[in-house]
Structure formats: structure tokens, C-alpha cells
Design brief:
Helices cover 58% and strands 9% of the residues. It contains 6 helices and 2 strands; from the N terminus they run ααααββαα. A hairpin with a 2-residue loop joins strand 1 and strand 2.
Length: 167
Amino acid sequence: MDTESTPSTTPIPAAGADSADDPMRSLESELGLLLRRSHAMSRQLAHRVHPDVEPSASPLLARIAKTPDVRASELAALFGVGRSTMSRQLSRLDELGLIERRPDPDDSRGQLIRLTELGIRRSHDVRAAGRAFLRRALRSWSDEDAALLAAQLARLNRDLGVPPDRD
């Protein structure tokens, strides 16, 4: 991504400009900036769901919307957090009326999680706002460039999902 052609009030040099011979340094720098910006956007979008919702709630709600009747353990594994962390996040969403839980008919100890009607509406609104933000940010990109980025990010996410001790 050529950051010099990105519209901005202040020119931003390419993050890896001083390390052209080391693509991993450049990648690390660009990913760090992307993660910081993504976190800021997540905070803003989470407030659209509810003022008391943490930034991590938006992707969590989106995943539950995509896979209703999901188990908390599956969500914890997907997001790379412990079960207790996921339990706290889900409890908060439950308190706000955004999710509902029901017993797993295949395992009496487990619960299946899905969005409530309110959760569906809020999740839809947040996803629509996020897509609108991306459309504005990438308005100068071709559909092909956006698709290529999506494919490369999917590849990166698959590769990052492999535990470090397996390489």
C-alpha cells in the first residue's frame, strides 16, 4: 500500500521506508499502525451498539450473527481469548439484552448463543457503519484492489491462526 498517495492533511511516509531491505520490519510497522487505527474504529463502532460496550463486542456480535447457536468455547477459540474472558464479554452482552443463551440439546453442560432482535438490529447497524467507513476510506481503490487486499488479509489471518510452535 503506497501511503504517499493516501489522501491526508499531512504526508505520511511509508512505514518501512527506512527498511526497504527488510519487508518484515515494514510489515510489522504497517500492521501496528493498522491495528491501532482498527482499535480506534472499533471503539467508535462499539458505542453505536451501546455506550457501555467494549470495542471487542462489535466483532463478537458479528460472529454470533453469522453463526447463531454458537458455543462460548468456539468463540473463545476463534478470538484467541480464554473462556473466562469470553464468559465476561458474553455476560455483559446478555445484561444489555443483545444475546440470548439456551441449553445445548447435545450437551447439557453447554449453552448455545444467538443474538436477540435488539442484538440483530444493533449488529446490523454497526456492520453497515463499518462498511460505509471502509467505502469512504477506499473510495479511490478499484474493486479489484479491494478484493486483492481482502484475499491477502484472509491469507494472513489463516497463517496467523497457526500456533507459533508449529512452524
